[in-house]
Amino acid sequence: MANGRHVYPKARPAMERFKEEVADDLGLLDKANRIGWNNMTTKEAGRVGGEMVRRLIKKAEEDPDS
Q1: What distance lies between CA 18 and its chain's CA centroid?
Q2: Which residues contact 51 (CB under 8 A, 6 or more apart)?
Q3: Positive or negative, the Cα torsion across 17, 21, 22, 28?
Q4: Where are the alpha helices (DSSP H) in the chain?
Q5: What is the pLDDT of residues 3-54, one digit of tens each?
Q6: End-to-end Cα spacing for the chain
Q7: 36, 11, 32: which is closest to 20 by C-alpha?
Q8: pTM for the full model?
Q9: In the chain, what are the domain boundaries?
């Protein structure tokens, strides 16, 4: 994001689904749906974001041509 806006707005739905997938894997999706993403703790949000980055890096390393 740049200044609170997505650089590629068309990617937003896919990134939201990815965020929810990661949160579900971490056992945080139910809480996020219950209290809202903006009310998650910094630690919880960081876990989700960090895992998203780890998975994206792993995918890029496995398939550098994509």
Answers
A1: 6
A2: 22, 25, 26
A3: positive
A4: 12-25, 29-35, 42-62
A5: 566 678 888 899 999 999 999 999 999 999 999 999 999 999 999 999 999 9
A6: 21
A7: 32
A8: 0.82
A9: 26-55
